[in-house]
Amino acid sequence: MQLFKDVNYTTPLVIPALGVELRTRIYVQVIAANLTSQYHVLLDRCYASISALPSNSTFFNLFVPCSQDQMTTMLENGNSQKARFSFPAFRFIEQQNQTISTYYLHCITRLCETSTCTQFKQCNRRRRRDIQTTTIKDGVSDTTLITSGPIRTQADSSLTTKEEALSSAQKDSGNGASVGLGIALAVLVIVGTVAALMAVSFYRKLRMLR
């Protein structure tokens, strides 16, 4: 299983120590090597869990047979020797108070013959298999579980950003009000001075007339 950062699957996703930003699009690829052209890769189910051992932790289904989460985009499945899908980085509720949310991807994978892949993808042809091997029978193999490395996601900082923006706006508004008040006071002082000078001049003229 490989993770990429672009829809063309050319740039591998390197997850920083502090995690990727929330809602960053993650592109997943499961590819089979050393296969003849007779077989294709088919993802039966992919899900995320907070443990590398999915049976021991909470999980979230990205897609299951005949259904997928609305945030998951299936790009290719059962049509070639690779399967591809994408989803936005998210956080588990159990880790909401943690700075970094860490989880793993798991994909239940099969190999199917090109002549049977289309039929097997139909909902009424799905069958449960208990043994996780790659033995081919009736044109489709049993399942194999593939797990990714840890995916780390940062906490959502949008609320903090909004608060900072609001605080900054209020500060700018306060500064603007202070400047406006200063200008108004200066105008009043000038008007008062001019009025006083005019009053003195008028008083002197009045005395001369007497």
TrEMBL record:
<feature type="domain" description="ZP">
    <location>
        <begin position="1"/>
        <end position="130"/>
    </location>
</feature>
<dbReference type="InterPro" id="IPR001507">
    <property type="entry name" value="ZP_dom"/>
</dbReference>
<keyword id="KW-0812">Transmembrane</keyword>
<protein>
    <submittedName>
        <fullName>Zona pellucida-like domain-containing protein 1</fullName>
    </submittedName>
</protein>
<keyword id="KW-0732">Signal</keyword>
<feature type="transmembrane region" description="Helical">
    <location>
        <begin position="179"/>
        <end position="203"/>
    </location>
</feature>
<dbReference type="InterPro" id="IPR055355">
    <property type="entry name" value="ZP-C"/>
</dbReference>
<dbReference type="Pfam" id="PF00100">
    <property type="entry name" value="Zona_pellucida"/>
</dbReference>
<keyword id="KW-1133">Transmembrane helix</keyword>
<dbReference type="InterPro" id="IPR042235">
    <property type="entry name" value="ZP-C_dom"/>
</dbReference>
<keyword id="KW-0472">Membrane</keyword>
<keyword id="KW-1015">Disulfide bond</keyword>
